[in-house]
Design brief:
Chain lengths: 212, 212
DNA sequence: CCTACCGATCGGTAGG
DNA sequence: CCTACCGATCGGTAGG
């Protein structure tokens, strides 16, 4: 049953995945034809079908390789920081540097939602969930006191910060200019939002306004 | 130049839009055929083309009528509240009740991003932007002191809260159970995140943990 | 991995 | 002469 993969065959497979990836990002799944993919990777249609049993299996292969959620979590978990403040900012920076800020960064997720009704999230969940848990643990392990927020909600809101930043970038950034301090400002708002009052750092994010 | 629209014709047009909307939500744009749409609304293909010059114009008509961003903003702007706390929670509640919590709530936006490369956002922006500005003004007009956050960033993060909540709902809610206090917890985190320390309300969102 | 095709269906339009 | 639509079919392309 073990499939013997020749170097040449594996190379073709990778080229198909790469070609499909760039086409899916640009046009979505249904608007991308097998002919588009085969032309871009230099194979014939028949050649493509020696590596994949169907069009959807090409998409799942692309998803395995390029899913932004799978790509970004390990990079984020390498973040360093002695305080929660430093840790969250480093996580955010790694998130953006790991994904880039192109408009199509999240497109594979959108394709999955719109063109597959989220069918493949079932497979994705067990891969992403442990990484998300580890991220939450990194956060709650810090010394600064976090407000009483149910752990699932804390995790979900932390995860949501990712979408908040990227979605508003996709929709707003072509019309409104945002400089590169915006990400840090987003993180500051979240940080202030989850910390107990007495543990809010004073060195960051603007001076307090004392006139009530 | 003024087009005279008969009741019957306008009715057919609305039925096409409605049929297309439900099909686009389920399968996306390219996977939905004119035939699918015409069958669902009870017209022939030719009949559909008396109302629209092409398939894409059906999509833009659907977008005008059902765009979640356009639908939700006016509902949110009716929010009431004497404090920022009360105002934001009412805004959030109206947001969810105005859109519902189906998995496909944001699908029109995703279709736009993935299948049209965001082309139609250009037309959407002038419609949504003033409403977003008004929302920000409602927030900053309150008495409670908001931290020194650049106004565009405040607006973007407020807008982002919307995506944070819905995207994480789409991805997580089928696997993890979240009760209906989650939305309020999200708003609380944001509220704590933008308020000055001395103006943080103490009656809401968990008691302070005083042991440092 | 290619050439040569299949059943079916695509978006769009003809005359009436 | 208008609108709203019909049955039939156009040239091309889809996944396989």
């Amino acid at each position: 049953m073990a499939r013997h993969i020749t170097p040449k065959g594996e190379n073709s497979r990778q080229q198909i995945i790469q070609a499909a990836y760039s086409l899916f990002l640009k046009k979505g799944y249904h608007a991308t034809s097998i002919r588009d993919i085969s032309e871009r990777c230099g194979l014939t249609i028949g050649g493509v079908y020696t590596h994949f049993p169907g069009k959807e299996s090409i998409f799942t292969a692309v998803l395995d390789e390029y899913n932004p959620l799978l790509k970004v979590m390990p990079v984020m978990l390498e973040a360093q920081g002695d305080t929660l403040d430093a840790l969250l900012h480093d996580m955010a920076r790694r998130m953006v540097s790991g994904l880039g800020l192109q408009r199509d960064t999240l497109n594979l997720i959108f394709i999955e939602v719109v063109e597959f009704e989220g069918r493949h999230f079932e497979d994705l969940f067990p891969k992403v969930f442990p990484l998300l848990i580890e991220g939450i643990e990194r956060i709650t392990r810090q010394e600064q006191a976090i407000r009483q927020i149910p752990l699932p909600v804390l995790g979900r809101s932390f995860f949501g910060l990712f979408f908040s930043y990227f979605m508003t970038h996709i929709i707003l950034a072509r019309k409104l200019p945002f400089d590169d301090t915006t990400l840090d400002a987003f993180v500051d708002i979240y940080l202030y939002g989850i910390l107990e009052r007495q543990d809010i750092p004073s060195g960051n994010g603007g001076s307090p306004d004392m006139n009530g």
